[in-house]
Amino acid sequence: MKIVCRCQDVTEEEVVAALRQGATTIDEIKRLVRAGMGPCQGRTCRRLVSQIIARELKEPMAQVFPPTFRPPNRPVPFKLVMAEYERQEADERKKAAKAKGGKK
Ligand code: FES
Fold first, then answer.
1. Distance, CA 84 to ligand 1 centroid (Å)?
2. Are 9 and 57 in the same domain?
3. Separation between Cα atoms, residue 89 and residue 28, nearest integer Å
4. Per-residue pLDDT tens digits for 46-76
5. Is the pTM of this model over 0.70?
6. CB within 6 Å of ligand 1 — which residues?
7. Do 58 and 26 fall within a single domain?
8. Are residue 18 and residue 58 in the same domain, yes or no?
9. Are both 82 and 43 inside the same structural domain?
10. What is the distance between the alpha carbons of residues 49 and 56, in angstroms, rounded to a whole number?
């Protein structure tokens, strides 16, 4: 048993089984066995999964499409959201006051 994705404890056998079910891309492997869905978002396992796909499908690595990337989501404290909102409100008030003062 060879672990391919340390974050999700996905083995090489699971990736190969997913390929035999019909998966042909990293995204399909990801959906079937969750390889690449861990905290590192595939930084560690993406290349290994690509190598397994290339080997099993007998294609060059260049033919294996890279997965889709999404920006990392992190929780943001609500006070930061409110601080930004208040800052924008203050800027708009300043602009409005400046425009009002400039017309006179
Ligand atoms: S090792 Fe696969 S998601 Fe981190």
1. 34
2. yes
3. 45
4. 999 999 999 999 999 999 988 887 776 788 8
5. no
6. 5-8, 35-38, 40-42, 44-45
7. yes
8. yes
9. no
10. 10
Is residue 68 a part of any domain in this protein? no
Choose which residue among 33, 40, 69 to substitute to test ligand 1 binding: the one with the highest number of ligand atoms within 8 A of its C-beta. Answer: 40
| Residue burial 35-68, b: 16+ Cβ < 10 Å; e: rest | bbbbeeebeebbebbbebbeebeeeeeeebeebe
Instruction: Assess whether 90 and 52 both reside in one domain.
Output: no
Name the residue at shortest CA distance from atom 1 of ligand 1.
5
Range of the domain at 98: 74-104
What spacing in Å lies between the alpha carbon of 36 and ligand 1's midpoint? 5
